[in-house]
Specification:
By secondary structure, the chain is α/β, with parallel strands linked by helices. The strands form five sheets. It has an eight-stranded parallel beta barrel, surrounded by six helices. Strands 9-10-11-12 form a four-stranded antiparallel β-sheet, with no helix packed on it. Strands 15-22-20-17 form a four-stranded antiparallel β-sheet, with no helix packed on it. A hairpin with a 2-residue loop joins strand 18 and strand 19. It starts with a strand and ends with a strand.
């Protein structure tokens, strides 16, 4: 019997696609016994955005999550999503880091490594696949499916043959943007099976409404494993429902053998869990046939919506979705999957939010145009390239060949904070973020972002133009206050939802006066009331010499000092926003007379970060 196997995605891609990867480990562990007993081919439970979200938002150790899941799922294959030479970060890593990361992932419990490259550049997959095979684990070579003038079935078949030649155990077709149609899936699976004779594993998001039909035709063409998600976290930007596919195949030669009553018990558990994360639900996670045009992946759309919400710009979502295909074409039609989805999506957001295309270009786009992520599939817009990188040389070799080994350097940088090789690898993925996380862990002050009580107003109603975290001492007692969201103000009062030592509270704030800050950070001047500066040491930008960020973010580097002469267009700061870094440039030529920002500062577009006196 040609039995079809199921990979269940609820522990990774399901919640990544619908609630911005916010499910906590403590909500996963109680149901693991039933997941383990269900008989899935594998459980995707790690990798993708889960590593980033654990550290950035949940303040969890992603390695500890993996260890706990391994213990709780003794009879199941744990599967992870690995971005080839990018691992779980947003850049290429040296080969020594790649090999160490794969080895430690295997040691801590990963059985199946789905390895892909956003550019489908096979050179970026070789070392990861070699490392998986060296660890004695299952290597699933993966094709990032997309449509464009330069992508067709013969192209994908050649990729599959290259993956087979590397020793992969299975071939996955990763349809992250819900673009694969049923009859194309049939042709593609049949062609790959004929060319490689390897088992084919299909992955398709439900965003466009085609995925269940796509899986069915793929199975008829010879696919032996399909990805689904339990009902409570399925459909829309997620994946076809596990129970529905199991029922569709029951009694046929493709019968999965899974128990529908047990699957319903699992789904009922996650239905209750999902209610806790209501604040991360997005209106953009239903069926949306626009995905066939904008090609935004399911895992990206909820995160993009959440990031725009944090920028106070959720109303610009449609404009950003319209801009994404234009940016993708400019960059030579890369498949939209992490990190290229984030690179293209953030640049599209910048183009919209700044009101001018490529007025601000992220560092990642510049690196992409220099060939540092691999070869672009199609022709790059030469005007955009010239604007972004000028006459800089474009890399033609495997990008990682330009990288020196890093592990010893990383160990030295984090000495005293890292307790294990896993900590060093966490630092390798996200240096600034991980360093703060490790410091807070050492101090015993790690706290997850709060889960707001149902009904609390969301932060999108009021962009944050003020500090959002405080330590307040009152009558000899010290409290840790963090702004979690704000409601619509009336004429006199503004409701804020705050976490006080981890307990959610609502407070009403009545502003009695507001003042403008004099240029240069001097004393307040009287006049027409405007919002105050975002912090005491950063004045509001008031003249052309004030350098500002294009959107709220965090300062990751200061490139100038007082007394330095700069030209218009010179980089003065590097800001991280929406997980991407952007260089903030001098708007005019002159001499730096004030540097108000420092590394680690949270900043907003109204702040003057550097002041330049014209020559």
């Amino acid at each position: 019997m040609a039995k079809v196997h199921i990979t269940e995605l609820v522990l990774r891609d399901g919640h990544q696609s619908l609630i911005a990867t916010r499910m906590r480990t403590d909500d996963m562990l109680p149901i693991c016994g039933k997941l383990d007993a269900a008989g899935f081919w594998s459980l995707e439970a790690w990798g993708g955005a889960t590593f980033d979200a654990c550290v950035r938002f949940l303040r969890e150790d992603p390695w500890e999550r993996l260890k706990k899941l391994r213990k709780a799922l003794p009879n199941s294959r744990i599967q992870m999503l690995l971005r080839g030479q990018n691992l779980l970060g947003y850049r290429n890593y040296p080969d020594d880091v790649v090999r160490a990361f794969v080895r430690k992932s295997a040691d801590n419990g990963v059985d199946v490594f789905r390895v892909f490259d956003a550019m489908n550049d096979l050179r970026n997959l070789r070392v990861s696949i070699e490392a998986v095979k060296a660890a004695g684990r299952h290597a699933e070579g993966t094709i990032s499916y997309t449509t464009s003038p330069v992508h067709d079935i013969p192209h994908f078949v050649e990729l599959a043959k290259g993956l087979a030649d590397m020793g992969c155990d299975t071939i996955a077709i990763k349809d992250m943007a819900a673009l694969l149609t049923p009859y194309t899936a049939f042709e593609l699976v049949r062609a790959i099976r004929a060319a490689t004779n390897l088992p084919v594993h299909t992955h398709s998001h439900a965003t466009s409404g085609l995925a269940a039909m796509t899986h069915l035709k793929a199975v008829e063409a010879g696919a032996s494993i399909i990805d689904t998600c339990i009902g409570a976290f399925s459909e829309g930007a997620s994946h076809p429902t596990t129970q529905s596919l199991v029922a569709a195949l029951a009694g046929t030669e493709y019968d999965t053998g899974l128990s529908l009553p047990l699957l319903e018990e699992i789904s009922a558990y996650f239905k209750e869990v999902r209610k806790k994360y209501w604040q991360f639900e997005s209106e953009f996670t239903g069926t949306d046939t626009r995905a066939l045009v904008n090609q935004v992946p399911g895992g990206m759309i909820s995160n993009l919506a959440n990031q725009l919400k944090e920028q106070g710009a959720l109303d610009k979502m449609d404009a950003v979705l319209d801009e994404i295909p234009r940016v993708r074409e400019d960059l030579g039609y890369p498949p939209l999957v992490t990190p290229t989805s984030q690179i293209v999506g953030t640049q599209a957001a910048l183009n919209v939010l700044t009101g001018a295309r490529y007025k601000s270009v992220t560092n990642e786009v510049k690196l992409y145009l220099q060939g540092r992520y691999g070869a672009a599939p199609g022709h790059v817009n030469e005007e955009v390239k010239k604007l972004a990188i000028g006459d800089l040389e474009v890399t033609t070799c495997r990008p990682a060949d330009l990288l020196a080994d890093e592990l010893d350097k990383l160990r030295g940088e984090i000495e005293g904070l890292a307790r294990s090789e896993e900590d060093v690898l966490t630092y390798a993925m996200f240096p600034e973020l991980a360093k703060t996380w490790l410091q807070e862990r050492a101090a015993g002050s790690l706290k997850a972002e709060p889960l707001l009580p149902k009904g609390a107003a969301q932060a999108e109603a009021a962009p944050r133009y003020a500090a959002d975290e405080f330590r307040i001492t009152l009558h000899g007692e010290t409290y840790h206050i963090k702004l979690a969201g704000s409601g619509h103000p009336d004429a006199s009062q503004r409701p804020y939802f705050v976490s006080v030592d981890g307990v959610s509270e609502e407070v009403l704030v009545e502003p009695l006066n507001e003042v403008a800050i004099a240029p240069g950070g001097g004393a307040p001047r009287k006049g027409t009331p405007t919002a105050p500066a975002a912090t005491g040491d950063k004045p509001r930008a008031t003249h052309p010499g004030h350098v500002t960020a294009a959107m709220p973010g965090t300062v990751v580097d200061v490139l100038v000092q007082v007394g330095q002469t700069v030209k218009a267009g010179d980089g003065v700061l590097v800001i991280e926003a929406m997980k991407m870094e952007s260089e903030v440039q001098a708007p005019i030529a002159g001499v730096v007379i004030n540097v108000f920002a420092k590394k680690g500062d949270a900043v907003t577009p109204d702040m003057a970060l550097v002041e330049i006196q014209p020559e």
